[in-house]
Predict the 3D structure of the following.
Amino acid sequence: MFKQKKRRSKEFKDSDKIIDLEQARAERRERRKLAADKKLNKSRRNALGELSERKVNKRNRKRLIYFCIILGIIVVIGWSVFHVYSLQKEYKGIVAQNKALKEKKQDLTEELGNVNNPEYVEQQAREQLKMVKPGEVMYILPPKDTTGTAIVPKERTDLLPAGQASD
């Protein structure tokens, strides 16, 4: 079913190569030296300011993540400040409304105290109900916002005798 991978020992058993230990050590040293030189060149290149594309991409990705986090924090703080400001504005409006209602309550309380006063009752009857004492004549003047238009009373036909009509 699955083909088994050859083991190294089998590879060496099957191969007819003769391994020279000194030569293998020298090759290994060369590979290590090349890796060290490559690492040294890479650090020199980084010291000169040249970064690999992978590092540049990684750095840009980190910057983008930091930017998104900071932007999110700014949005949350801005929304909170706006909410606090609107609540303070609403509070000031409610306080002003409360003050106006307290003043109105005080005025109505004073008016309630005057209800039993006969002079106050007479004044209210004259102003609101347009009542007059016997023998007094009430004159009703037109409002001041009319611009010189005369009010012409209609001729009353109910006062004339039944057979007469106005010409």
